Amino acid sequence: MRVTITGAAGRIGRCLTAGLTDTGHDVRGIDAVEPADDAAGQCVVADLGRDDAALADVVAGADAIVHLAAIASESTFAEALDTHLRLTHRVLEAAVAAGVPRVVYASSNHAVGFTPRAPIVGVDTPIRPDSFYGVGKAAAEALCSLYHDRHGVAVACLRIGSFRPRPDSRRALSTWLSPGDAVRLVDACLRAPDLGFAIVYGISANTRGWWDLTTARALGYDPVDDAESFAADIEAVPATDDDEVDGRYLGGSFARP
Q1: Per annotation, catalytic residue among 133, 201, 221, 249
Q2: 220: left (phi over 0), alpha (psi -120 to 50) or beta
């Protein structure tokens, strides 16, 4: 497939650019800054939020858009609306205008971050954002739902967990998403024949995971990494009060008092 990645210079963007290319997709990206690696040749440097021509050009002829571009941390309410809701609206409008049939949206676990820990939490849990960042992601999920129902765009909203090379905390033993599984998850969403509108949790096959991966697996996601292989190193460091607090809610530290 011909895939456009927004936010291609970010951590997940660089991972997906390389990984999806290796999987066989024709990948091109757009970001406000140039990637600091080999992906630079595949990335258009432009302001996605203002440059209409660059956005239209990079999505032209695409089979799918993977929309990652955003401020990937807490911000002000105004910045959250701009970087999540308004920017996602621009990307969805560009998809409709160009006839791009599929969008994979990088949402976040923080859209439901105040959900209390349970043996298993499904994707149908009510929206409970833990921050303005989470509010922005939840609002963008609703916008994606509208564009699916109104315009027929197939959309997968990925509530991504702890994306990093290896888990680095007790919470991440449950919430880790490895780089390899991130590629496998997005690839599954790109290839699923009957995507429709789907919300899926983005984590690896963690032994301690408590976010339900049923929806993701139904799309063809087959995670292979498990944070448990790093558990001994993490648990060799004494637990702190923060570790206990961060385990109470789905959003971890974002849901601290």
Answers
A1: 133
A2: left
